[in-house]
Amino acid sequence: MKRFFKEIFMNEPWNDDWSDEVQLSNYIRDIACCFNSICYGYFDKEELIGLAMGSKRHWWTGIEYFMEEFCIKTSMQGQGIGREFLQIIEKDLKTEGIVSIRLQTERQVPAYHFYPKVGFKEVKEQVSFVKKI
């Protein structure tokens, strides 16, 4: 899974530096090993070509799935695989009683344009803040 993650996120358009293996292992463990974690793999035969990692959170509107990571192998993008993978995830989440999926992405990457095409709405009233310390 780490090799797959690095293949996607250490290249365009993300260019994240996941060269620290310990940091990457801890990041994946933070998401995949929490109490309410829900992770999905999408395979073509035995090859991992899609990954979704997140957790369910209880909110006043019902249980939501916070999708921390969603990715399709770069060479397989643009073929409808992401759309199909999300449909499978949504169907499964509905059986778990989950009412919505929340995620964050960056405006300058292709994913920003993908999510509205598959039914996601941008929440204009919310913003993300970060403070380096």
Overall number of domains: 1
Please give the share of residues in helix. Answer: 25-40%
Kindly provide the name of the CATH class: Alpha Beta
Q: What pattern of helices and strands is seen along the backbone? A: HHEEEHEH
Taking the alpha carbons of the first and last residues, their distance comes to 30 Å
Q: What is the average per-residue confidence, as pLDDT, rounded to a whole number?
A: 94
Query: Count of helical segments?
Result: 4
CATH architecture: 3-Layer(aba) Sandwich
For CATH, the homologous superfamily is named as Gcn5-related N-acetyltransferase (GNAT)
Q: Strand pairing plus helix content: what structural class? A: alpha+beta
How many DSSP-defined strands?
Answer: 4
Q: Give the CA-based shape.
A: globular
Q: Note the main sheet.
A: 4 strands, mixed
**What is the name of the CATH topology?**
Aminopeptidase
Low-pLDDT parts are: none
In terms of DSSP E residues, the strand content is 25-35%
State the gist of this model.
With 133 residues, the chain is an alpha+beta fold. It has four helices and four strands. The protein has a single domain, classed as Aminopeptidase, CATH 3.40.630.30.
